[in-house]
Every structure is written in C-alpha cells, then in structure tokens.
Amino acid sequence: xxxxxxxxxxMKLLRMVLLVTMAGMMVEVLMMVVVMEETVVMAVVSIxxxxxxxxxxxxxxxxxVLxxxDVLVMxxxxxxxxxxxVLxxxVVLVMxxxxxxDVLVxxxxxxxxxxxxxxxxxxxxxxxxxQPGMGERGGGASNGSRDLIFQDGRLTSxxxxxxxxxxxPTVDYYPDRTYIFTFLLSSRVFMPPHDLLARVGQICLExxxxxEAGPEKAKLKSFSTKIVQLLKEWTEAFPYDFQDEKAMAExxxxxxxxxxxxxxxxxxxxxxxxxxxxxxxxxAARSQLQELREKLRSPVVDKGPILKAKPxxxxxxxxxxxxxxxxxxxxxxxxxxxxxNSIRPEDLMQIISHMDSxxxxxxxxxxxxxxxxxxxxxxxxxxxxLVATEVCRVVKKKHRTRMLEFFIDVARECFNxxxxxxxxxxxxxxxLSPVARLKKTWSKVKTAKFDVLEHHMDPSSNFCNYRTAxxxxxxxxxxxxxxxxxxxxxxxxxxxxxxxxxxxxxxNHLPNGHINFKKFWEISRQIHEFMTWTQVxxxxxxxxxxxxxxxxxxxxxxxxLFIASFESEGxxxxxxxxSWKALR
Length: 584
Fold this sequence. Notes:
By secondary structure, the chain is mainly α. It is built from 23 helices and five strands.
C-alpha cells in the first residue's frame, strides 16, 4: 500500500512538472509570435516606402529614355541621308573604274610586256621598263602578238611563232630582258639554238625590208642597234649555244646583214666585232677548263694490289693530310663552288631537252653539251668512293672507328656551312655496303651525330627534312651579313630531279596548241635561284695540299672495296661467303 501511494505521489509530481514546462513553452511561443508580427509590420512599412522610391525613379528613367530615343531617331534619319549620298558616289566611282580598266586592257593588249621574275641574273638594269629610246611592240608591228596570252601582266602562253616574234626588237620596241632570258632558255626544248637564230634572222630581214620600202628608212640604224643588243645579250647569257658551227654561221650571217645598215660610221660593225671577240674568249675558256678537269680525273685502283697485300701502314691517309673536320669541310666547299660555278643555265636545260629519264642520278644526253653536269655529278660519286676507300683500307679496327667518326664530323661541318652536296656524298659513302657491313667497327662508333645527319637526309616525304634545312639556309643567305652565311650548295642530284619532274608533270603545250609559258617561267625561276647560289665566292682560305689529295687520291673500285672490307671483317653469312669466294 505504501508503495502504491508513493508511486501515485511521484506520478502527480511528474504531471505537475510537465504541465509547468508546457505552460512555459507556450508562453515563449506566444512571445515569438508577437515579435514576428511586429517584424512583419515593420517590413511592410519598409516595402511601401521602397515602392514609392522605385516608382519615382522609374518615372525619371522613362523621361530620360524618351529623350534618348528622340535623339537616336534623329541620328538614324541623318545616317540614312548620308548613306544615300555615299551610294551615289560609289556608283559613280565604279562606273569610272570600269571605263579606266577597259581602256587599260585595250592598251595592254596592244602593247604587251612581260613582268620581272628574276632581274638579278640579267644585271642591275633588268626591269619591266624598256631602255631609253626603246618603246614597246605595237600591234601593227607584230601580227603574232594576238597569239600571246597575258594574265595579271605576265605572259602565260602563246604560239611558238608569236613568242619568237615577241623576242625580236622593232624600231619602237625592245623585249623585256627577263623574257629574253626565259625564252632563250626554254626555246631549246622546241628547237636547237641555230634554228632559232635562223628564224630570228628571217624576222630581222623582213623588218629591214619593210623599213627600206617605207617612210621610216632613217630608222634603220636604230633598228640595227637593237638587233645587235639582242645578240649581245644572247651571247653573254648563253655563250655555249654558239659552240655549234651552224649557230656561229647564223650569227655571222645576221651580223653581216645588220652591218649593211650602218656602213657610214661603222658603229654597229665595231659593236659586233667586240661581241664576237668576247664570245670566242668565253668558248676558249670553257674548252681549257674541260681539258684541265680531264687531267685531274681521279684514278681508280683495281683489286689487284689489294689482293696481294694490304696497304702499308706508312701510307698517307686523309687524317695524315688534314685532321681538322672544319678545315676539310671548308676545302670541300671550295671544290664544290669551283665546279658548280662552271654550270650554265643551258646545261641545266639539257636535262629537259636531251633526257627522257634519270638513271642512277646521271644525266643522259649530249656529253659535250652537258660536260659540266657530268663533271659535277662525277665529283659527287668520287667523294663518296673516297670516303669508303679511306675507311675500308684502314687495317686496325680502332683506326677505322676514328676514321668513321672523323667523316661524321666533316659531314656535320658541311651541314653547318650550307654545303649539302658534300654532306650527302659523305653519308652516301658511309652507307655503301662495304662500309655499312663493318658491324664490329660501327659498334665502337658514337653514332648519335650520324643519326642526326641521316635524319636530315631521310628520303621519306620527298626529302622533307632536307628541304626544310635547305629553305633555312636560303633564308640565311638572303639576310646574310657575311660571305660565310651566303653559302648554299644544294644536293645536286635532287635539284636535277626537281627540274626534270617539274618538266614531266606539266605539259609543254596547252589544249589550244599554245606553249605553256607559265611552266617555263617556273623552271627559269628555279634555275635562276640555283645560278645565284653558284655565284657566291668562297670565303675560306684555299689549301692546295688538302685539295690536291681530295682530287687525286687513289680510289678503290667497288670490287676492291669489298675485298678490303672482307679482309678487315670476315664474311658472316652464306651470301657474303659466296661473294668473297667470287672476288678471290
């Protein structure tokens, strides 16, 4: 009983505590509600005040906007009026331009002139303007001028007859020197120089007869002077066209007819005599150069001496003559520039006019006319074989390793100079089978530099890496501050291929029968660029001892190279063993 009463008392106490607690919580809630009501009232008052302010501001802004709109409307009206005025002016100007262009086109058709492509090869006076006192060919002077097509001021095509007539001066016209060079260079694709000379002589004779029969007989001397000037430029730019007896006979025939127009004071006759004398000197100089190079042609050692005994240790090699890679690279550059300087533009055109294909990087055609090309190509082959000879004839592996590393450094210096032709020849020599098979020797060589050189001469993508390097050297040459930076000697075999394939890709004649002269502009441009490189004077001091060794040192034949290679490192497989037996 006592326990039950105690429990009831506790329960009552708990109820009272709970009721008191709930009452307190309700009071707090009521107080919070009151506070919230006051807050809401204050917020509403604030909002009302803000709305009033906003309304006032909106009214002000609307008034400002209305004023701005009025101003903009006025501006637009003024601009529309101005636009109408401008349109009227533009229409008037367009009509004037159309009339002017039409007049200029008619004048251009009546008096065509070619544009300048490569003035430097023709001298400082080569530009689009004719010489003082020499006008342009008029429409009546050349019926063939209607067969010439111009685009943007440049002659792009024409019949062969029209192009020949465009070459010959008249009383009031003298051809652009750039055109003279390009046509004389490209004409040999279609006819030999002596035939072109004969046709030029006929055109000159016809014009002379017209002058003698007409009222302009007094201008015969002026006409003769221009003909002599044309012949002078021809003999200076392409002197070896006149090695042919027929060409020389035609030249003398034209000269004889021209001198008859100035028999009184003999000025024309004197100019012709000087021209022919200079021509004969040029031809004689080239003949002497050919004879000299024949004497300096490197001898080839047969396999006999190598079979009997290895070369004596005391025999001089390239390292005994020059151990500095930079000096040897400079002397190679000397030889390159001397040999490439003898190449003439007409020699390069023989690639097109006398060759149907390239065979092992060699030009096939008239040996006499392409002697300079053959000599330069032979120099490349001789240098490659000399490198292989110097490596293979060394007895000790340690010395062969040193020899390979030396030539790698020489090739690298050639690259730095801009002598890409010698660099390619050296790399080719080290890649010949008798050298490349010397695996034990190559294993001792630090080939990092050689790998870089081979990367530059990687044949993939049409020698893309080499062409990038060549372009860089060309840009350096154009902005050079010293003669050393002007040197650019391209890989000649690749240059020859570029010219040849440019000829093969583009046709000589267009569908209408015209000669595709645009093609020959591009060929002439590339030949001009090459000729510019050949005119650079070598800035390095000449070492006759080193050059004599490079030009006259004995060179092993291909069989001799293999024998020396097998004696240094024996055959490793059945194919090499069979080759070794056949050689012995």
